[in-house]
């Protein structure tokens, strides 16, 4: 039996594979249980034969970086690694879910909780930068959260150790989180490239998304979205920002500055007054009862749904006449519309982008023409 077969058998002997937790282009993440101590973990299984798979050098780079941060707060802990000719098995600590999935369930997180999550994330990224490592793929999907709302930064596939004065030009990560200077590399060969400040930008996009429930630069047409990012063009005008405090908006402004050298540093961001502000205790998420109510409604028969929906509309602090004119003006309706919009579009929808949440309440359906 070859060494590769020995490793594969050793992995299956040590760990029992359980249900699938998530999938990527060339990988699947499963819950697994250590056969010896019964402890549960998450194992990332990478199919090395896929075209989209990382090569051996990239996998080894990720493994070495993760080992370096073993035991560091707010960075995912890699416990074990097995690699064969066709697969790589990376055993991580088990978290509850991705921050993306968590936000999907609750639509919007209270500002007090956003503050806690962001402080943990900034501390993690600051730890990386202190060792001259740039992450390059900070996004909701790469932040894991547990039942206590403690977070761990994960997925170091694009992470790289660089010289403090070195600039990069390779486009990495997800377009909606890319910094203007990174996107500029694809348009202008003379641009100096990007460095650690690109991670600060990505954190700023994530902060704005947590505060408002939608991406600050989202547009249904990706080209327009990229132009908005390169121009650092966004606003706090929407009703989703009405209940966000000024200090939080100020930090977003300082993180989403177009010029990298004028962008706030991680150290200054962590020292921002917003983190010292005392916010009154409130529920961890907006209207948890409403979220549970939505789940139950889906199980009822159509007749029961109609009756309950009628009673719900009657209980709202606004008339049906006003609801027809501006349904997004009431917080309770906002939350329901955000939930429905996410389920339909698969992302958070901003107003005036061609996919208005309020359009969900229009009586006339719009048909799309198919072109051959």
From TrEMBL:
Domain Protein kinase: residue ranges: 15-275
Single GO BP term: glycogen metabolic process
Kinase keyword on record: yes
Pfam families given in the database record: Pkinase
UniProt-listed Gene3D superfamilies: Phosphorylase Kinase, domain 1 (3.30.200.20), Transferase(Phosphotransferase) domain 1 (1.10.510.10)
Keyword Membrane: no
Catalysed reactions, semicolon-separated: 2 ATP + phosphorylase b = 2 ADP + phosphorylase a
SUPFAM superfamilies for this protein: Protein kinase-like (PK-like) (SSF56112)
Keywords: ATP-binding, Calmodulin-binding, Carbohydrate metabolism, Glycogen metabolism, Kinase, Nucleotide-binding, Serine/threonine-protein kinase, Transferase
Family designation: Belongs to the protein kinase superfamily.
Subunit field text: Hexadecamer of 4 heterotetramers, each composed of alpha, beta, gamma, and delta subunits. Alpha (PHKA1 or PHKA2) and beta (PHKB) are regulatory subunits, gamma (PHKG1 or PHKG2) is the catalytic subunit, and delta is calmodulin.
Name of the featured protein: phosphorylase kinase
């Amino acid at each position: 039996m070859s060494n590769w077969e020995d490793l594969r058998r050793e992995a299956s002997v040590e760990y029992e594979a359980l249900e699938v937790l998530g999938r990527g282009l060339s990988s699947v993440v499963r819950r697994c249980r250590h056969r010896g101590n019964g402890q549960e973990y998450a194992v990332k299984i990478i199919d090395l034969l896929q075209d989209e798979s990382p090569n051996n050098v990239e996998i080894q780079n990720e493994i070495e970086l993760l080992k370096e941060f073993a035991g560091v707060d707010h960075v995912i802990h890699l416990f074990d690694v097995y690699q064969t000719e066709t697969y790589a098995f990376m055993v991580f600590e088990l978290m509850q879910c991705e921050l993306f999935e968590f936000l999907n369930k609750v639509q919007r997180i209270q500002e007090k909780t956003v503050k806690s999550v962001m402080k943990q994330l900034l501390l993690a990224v600051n730890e990386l930068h202190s060792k001259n490592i740039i992450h390059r793929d900070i996004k909701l999907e790469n932040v894991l959260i547990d039942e206590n709302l403690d977070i761990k930064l994960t997925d170091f596939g694009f992470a790289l150790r660089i010289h403090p004065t070195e600039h990069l030009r390779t486009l990495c990560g997800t377009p909606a989180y890319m910094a203007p200077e990174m996107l500029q590399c694809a348009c202008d060969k003379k641009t100096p490239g990007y460095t650690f400040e690109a991670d600060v930008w990505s954190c700023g996009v994530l902060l704005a998304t947590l505060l408002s429930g939608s991406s600050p630069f989202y547009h249904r047409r990706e080209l327009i979205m990229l132009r908005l990012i390169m121009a650092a063009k966004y606003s706090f005008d929407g009703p989703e920002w009405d209940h966000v405090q000024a200090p939080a908006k100020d930090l977003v402004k300082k993180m989403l500055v177009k010029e990298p050298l004028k962008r706030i540093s991680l150290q200054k961001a962590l020292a921002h007054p917003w983190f010292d502000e005392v916010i009154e205790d409130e529920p961890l998420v907006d209207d948890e009862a409403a979220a549970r109510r939505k789940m139950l409604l889906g199980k009822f028969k159509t007749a029961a749904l109609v009756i309950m929906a009628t009673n719900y509309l009657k209980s709202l602090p606004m008339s049906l006449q006003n609801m027809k004119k501006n349904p997004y003006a009431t917080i309770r309706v906002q939350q329901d519309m955000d939930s429905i919009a996410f389920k339909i579009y698969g992302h958070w929808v901003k107003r005036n982008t061609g996919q208005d949440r309020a359009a969900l309440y229009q009586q006339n359906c719009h048909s799309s023409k198919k072109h051959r």
